[in-house]
Amino acid sequence: GGEDRRGERNLITEEMAMATSTQLSSSSSLFHSQITKTPFLLPAAKIGRHGFSFRSSNSLSLSRRSSSVSALAASSPAVGVNEPVTSEKPTKTLPFRVGHGFDLHRLEPGYPLIIGGIDIPHDRGCEAHSDGDVLLHCVVDAILGALGLPDIGQIFPDNDPKWKGAPSSVFIKEAVRLMDEAGYEIGNLDATLILQRPKISPHKENIRSNLSQLLGADPSVVNLKAKTHEKVDSLGENRSIAAHTVVLLMKK
């Protein structure tokens, strides 16, 4: 009785185990064949409070994209990792550009007073690294500003021995060269000198004529004004000189 029942149960268990093994073997073969034919990527899993859950993943699409990128890279010329990247964005070309310049220098005894390239008789002059021509420095900055370039101090630093005592006409010529290179010319220029002494009116036409020549511009488009500072602060006390310039550059 009891032994026969145990024998029957053992026989049934063995048959079920064999059937399960056969079924698993068949499923494994089928699954293996599917894997070898078409890879299938499972989404990433994470363990939460309620067991495993799967996040939505773009693995398959990323895999396809990677293949496309690899194919494209294989057909493209190799680019070195350390090669500089250059921007191909063209510089914006404007029909005109406006620039403003300002400069100021101390007036000290023992220095020549040079304004617009003209030596002006006075008991003191500009203390500066170059010849201290406040007007030409101001005009240079106005042109550079209109072109969107660094200021005169960056292009001609005052700690460079090369520019020690240099005539400011050198700076003007460089500014004009950069203007020509960019395809612009002087539309018109308006400058204002601010100093208490000496009076500029006797020298104004010489200054304007020389400035026009340096700029390569018609004198009719170059204007020069001079004002005192009503004896206020260093300008009004004959201890300094300043200048403002506004310039309009026109596309050639």
From TrEMBL:
UniProt keyword annotation of Magnesium present: no
Swiss-Prot/TrEMBL cofactor(s): a divalent metal cation
GO molecular function terms listed in the Swiss-Prot or TrEMBL record: 2-C-methyl-D-erythritol 2,4-cyclodiphosphate synthase activity; metal ion binding
Main location: plastid
Pathway terms, separated by semicolons: Isoprenoid biosynthesis; isopentenyl diphosphate biosynthesis via DXP pathway; isopentenyl diphosphate from 1-deoxy-D-xylulose 5-phosphate: step 4/6
Domain 2-C-methyl-D-erythritol 2,4-cyclodiphosphate synthase: from-to ranges: 96-249
Cited CDD domains: MECDP_synthase (cd00554)
Reactions catalysed, as given in the entry: 4-CDP-2-C-methyl-D-erythritol 2-phosphate = 2-C-methyl-D-erythritol 2,4-cyclic diphosphate + CMP
InterPro entries recorded: MECDP_synthase, MECDP_synthase_CS, MECDP_synthase_sf
A cellular-component GO term for this protein: chloroplast
GO biological process, one term: terpenoid biosynthetic process
Subunit structure: Homotrimer.
Stated family: Belongs to the IspF family.
Name this protein carries in UniProt: 2-C-methyl-D-erythritol 2,4-cyclodiphosphate synthase
Biological source species: Noccaea caerulescens
Lineage summary: Eukaryota, Viridiplantae, Streptophyta, Embryophyta, Tracheophyta
